[in-house]
């Protein structure tokens, strides 16, 4: 096929067009995928909204095509508003994307062929591409288990698991159709936002079904059973190519500037002694929760590196986020940064634990470095990820209930200094090795990337 695929004797350029959802946790895996495909000889074109636009200067090899229509983020970072925003993005830029895609395809058609990889949340992008006869692949940036949940959402409603009525006993009910989830591990949100969440999941599943394949940022060592389930239930091929950051350079798609001074600061600490604390790019807490977090960290006596993002507490200025006296109480033992080079931090030998909100990227990055987790999920798929960390891979513990300094302190000690935590760390080391086998030579993720490349080639007519 290679030899025949020429244009007047010249080999054709092969383009992959990418359209990420404009959120950090979606942009990172898409750019990591771009790195992988670029390494395989594909030309990369990235469509992007004005909101959270990537910096073209940091990717000189890629072409960037702005798509008008989305200039701002969600009204608030509540699950309702984030999901509503995600659902609205596809519609808001549909017309502009159609024009841009048509122009790009027309331009490339003289000497090249193209296929589109879009975030599964952008159903309209798949529909637009289909009308222009551009083949598509869907990237879903969460775990296989979470996508299985998306697909099972109608069943979960039918059986009465959702929407959640709010009683404690209902929250603890095991979802027998989707072990190991309990109701509280699902995207359990109030009745008011039930419809918009249902719609967003339905659209993501529809996007995958109309695509020519599903790309998942996970691997055999983490989700063999879940991947097998998806392969059984979906008519499209599934490519478990993750964790993608193992195949691509670090930190190049960060929207905020990463403070690298913390890497030097980490050098002074003994192995596995420092707690890294970060709640990702979206999670937001009350100032009371922030205070309890701060005093729990202080009280634990454990050295820490804490990412306090501007905006972590709604309506609070960056300089006023930390409680008075916190700095004095932890002087010499802690560092606070606005945004960290997370993968490098997790890889640093001094880091022995990660207090995380369990976004899928953070979870996978932690696993890859063998760092056990203190889990405090906020919303979306994070509860489900925390469930896997605690009860399937057993490389962390969940901090449940109200945030209160005493229980925060105890949980941090348990992870960082107790035998319990040491056991989790040992298992995390084993899991790291198992994942490294997937991403290493001849491993399942590498094989999946080979298959993906072959598949993309077969889509070019
Ligand atoms: N991240 C980072 N610096 C930080 C915190 C996070 O570079 O200080 C990166 C992290 O490595 C991950 C992404 O931001 O790739 C967050 O994605 P995730 O899915 O964990 O959470 P989200 O932000 O989507 O809630």
TrEMBL record:
Any single Pfam family the record assigns to this protein: UDPGT
InterPro entries per UniProt: UDP_glucos_trans
Keywords, sorted A to Z: Transferase
GO molecular function: UDP-glucosyltransferase activity
Superkingdom assignment: Eukaryota
Family: Belongs to the UDP-glycosyltransferase family.
PANTHER family: DIMBOA UDP-GLUCOSYLTRANSFERASE BX8, GLUCOSYL/GLUCURONOSYL TRANSFERASES
Protein name: Uncharacterized protein
Organism whose genome encodes this protein: Urochloa decumbens
């Amino acid at each position: 096929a290679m030899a025949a695929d020429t244009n007047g004797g010249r080999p054709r350029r092969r383009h992959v067009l990418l359209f990420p959802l404009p959120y950090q946790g979606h942009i990172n895996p898409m750019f990591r995928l771009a790195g992988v495909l670029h390494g395989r000889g594909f030309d990369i074109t990235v469509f992007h909204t004005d909101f959270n636009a990537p910096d073209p200067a940091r990717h000189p090899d890629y072409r960037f095509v702005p798509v008008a229509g989305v200039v701002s983020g969600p009204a608030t970072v509540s699950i309702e508003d984030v999901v509503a925003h995600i659902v609205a993005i596809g519609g808001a830029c549909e017309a502009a994307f159609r024009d841009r895609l048509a122009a790009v395809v027309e331009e490339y058609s003289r000497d090249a062929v193209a296929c589109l990889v879009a975030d599964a949340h952008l159903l309209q992008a798949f529909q637009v591409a289909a009308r222009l006869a551009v083949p598509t692949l869907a990237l879903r940036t969460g775990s296989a288990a979470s996508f299985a949940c998306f697909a099972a959402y109608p069943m979960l409603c039918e059986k009465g698991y959702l929407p959640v009525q709010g009683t404690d006993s209902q929250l603890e009910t095991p979802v027998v159709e989707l072990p190991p989830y309990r109701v509280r591990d699902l995207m359990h949100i109030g009745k008011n936002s039930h419809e918009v969440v249902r719609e967003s999941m339905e659209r993501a599943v529809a996007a995958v079904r109309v695509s020519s394949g599903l790309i998942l940022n996970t691997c055999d060592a983490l989700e063999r059973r879940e991947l097998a389930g998806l392969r059984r239930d979906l008519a499209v091929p599934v490519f478990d190519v993750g964790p993608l950051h193992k195949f691509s350079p670090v930190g190049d798609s960060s929207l905020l500037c990463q403070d690298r001074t913390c890497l030097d600061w980490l050098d002074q600490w003994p192995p596995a002694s420092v707690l890294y604390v970060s709640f990702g790019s979206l999670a937001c807490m009350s100032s009371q929760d922030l205070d309890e977090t701060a005093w729990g960290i202080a009280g634990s006596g454990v050295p820490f590196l804490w990412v306090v993002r501007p905006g972590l507490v709604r309506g609070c200025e960056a300089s006023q986020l930390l409680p008075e006296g916190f700095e004095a109480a932890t002087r010499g033992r802690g560092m606070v940064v606005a945004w960290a080079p997370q993968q490098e931090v997790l890889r640093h030998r001094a880091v022995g634990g990660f207090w995380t909100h369990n976004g899928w990227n953070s979870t996978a990055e932690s696993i890859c470095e063998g760092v056990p987790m203190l889990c405090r999920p906020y919303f979306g798929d994070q509860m489900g990820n925390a469930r896997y960390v605690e009860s399937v891979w057993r490389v962390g513990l969940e901090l449940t209930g109200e945030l209160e300094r005493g229980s925060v302190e105890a949980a941090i000690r348990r992870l960082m200094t107790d035998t319990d935590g040491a056991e989790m760390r040992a298992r995390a080391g084993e899991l790291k090795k198992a994942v490294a086998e997937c991403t290493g030579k001849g491993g399942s993720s590498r094989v999946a990337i080979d298959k993906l490349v072959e598949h993309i080639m077969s889509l070019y007519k």
